[in-house]
Structures are given as structure tokens and as C-alpha cells.
Amino acid sequence: MSEPFIGEIQLFGFNFAPRDWAFCNGATLAIRQNTALFSLLGVAYGGDGTTTFQLPNFTGRTGCNQGTAPGLSQRSIGEVFGENNVTLSTSEMPAHSHGFTIYNQTDSAKRASAPSAGNALTLPIESSVTAKDAQPNAQFASNMIGLAGNNVPHENRQPYLAVNFCIALNGTFPSFG
User: Fold this and answer.
1) What pLDDT does 131 receive?
2) What is the three-state SS of 119-137?
3) Distance between terminal CA atoms of the chain?
4) What's the angle, vertex CA 154, arms to CA 152 and CA 157, rounded to 5?
5) What pLDDT shows up at residue 153?
6) Over the stretch 113-127, which tens digit does the pLDDT of each residue have?
7) Quick one: pLDDT at residue 123?
8) What is the secondary structure of the chain as a DSSP string?
9) Among 52, 54, 55, 153, which lies 20 to 30 A Cα-Cα from 78?
10) CA torsion angle for 73, 60, 167, 47 (degrees, to 10)?
11) Whole-model pTM above 0.70?
12) Are 77 and 53 in contact, with CB atoms under 8 Å apart?
């Protein structure tokens, strides 16, 4: 592996930070022991700026470029945004409907354990979702449909692969311009 730039971030597929690298886990470092890295990062990721500074924190996060683009929000270095879990309210869900058809299959030979043409899973009068002795086009039973989600948040993270973000503590100081 070639010598990295100080402050360079790379992904590693193993469970340790290589020599002269540190996990990007928001760790607090002493400025006097890491002056070159501090001169590049400053307090963009935290720290008091007099004795300490912090490394970027990619724990449970993903990287994002700084700046903006058409239709996107402005992002700054060190900014943390997004949510791992989100609870949707009814007003946030698009209007939609769910079709539901019951076939009144009195012939037990045509009942099946899975949906299929001409078959039924049960007689409607045996089901808890239909009113007893219902006629065609009757209302479903009141317990047919309820609120979905139960105010429980859903997973909101993009697909991910478990890798470690690490930052080079030593190496070549990058030249500017």
C-alpha cells in the first residue's frame, strides 16, 4: 500500500484499524500529539480547539459530499443529518387502497392452503374478517382493517455493507494549490 495523505479516509473490510490509522468513530485526540492532522481537520468534527479535536464519526452513518447540487440540500463538512428510524403519520403516507376479494367456496375440494384461481382459503362465514351471514357486497367486519404501524418506527437507512471507515494519522501532508 502506498503512503497515504494525512487525513485521508479509506474503507477497510477487517475489524481493526491498520498501523498509523484510526477508526472514524468520533474519538477525541490531543492536538499536541496530532498537530498535522489537527491543522487539516480543525474542530469540524468537534473538540475544544485548544487541547482536543475529534475525528469524523461514521459509526452507523455513511459519507456525503460537501456542497450542494440542483434539488439537494446544502451540506457542510462535519454536518450530521438524517435519521436511522422514522415513524410515519397517516398524513405522510400517500393515498392508496388495498383490494380484497373473498370467494364463497362451498366445495371443500376447491379450498387451498394458498391463493389460487377458483379456490378459497376458507368459507367467508368461517373468517373473522366478514360479518356473519353477510350478503354479496356487504360491509366487512369492523376488525378487517386497523391502523398500520402502531406508532412503531421503520428502518430508514439505505442498504449497507459492514466496513470500517479509517483515517490516516500519519503520512504525506497534502499540498494545496
Assistant:
1) 54
2) CECCCHHHCCCECCCCCCC
3) 25
4) 150
5) 85
6) 666 665 555 555 555
7) 56
8) -PPPBTT-EEEESSSSPPTTEEESB--EEEGGG-HHHHHHHTTTT---SSSEEE--B-TT-----SB--TTS--B-TT-----SEEPPPGGGSPP------------GGGB-SS--TT-BSS-GGGSTTB-TTPPTTPPBPTTS---SSTT--EE-PPP----EEEEESSSBPPP--
9) 153
10) 80
11) no
12) no
Query: Which distant-in-sequence residues (6+ apart) come within 8 Å of 128 by Cβ?
Result: 141, 143
pLDDT of residue 30: 97
Instruction: Report how far residue 102's alpha carbon sits from residue 47's, in angstroms, rounded to the nearest whole number.
Output: 63
Asked if 86 contacts 156 with a C-beta cutoff of 8 angstroms, the reply is yes
Residue 73 CA to residue 22 CA, distance in Å, equals 30
The Cα–Cα gap between 18 and 10 comes to 11
C-alpha cell belonging to residue 115 = 391463493
Burial class (CB in 10 A: 0-12, 13-18, 19+), 167: buried
Given the DSSP bridges, would you call strands 28-30 and 52-54 parallel, antiparallel or unpaired? antiparallel
Question: Which residues of the chain, if any, have pLDDT below 50?
Answer: none
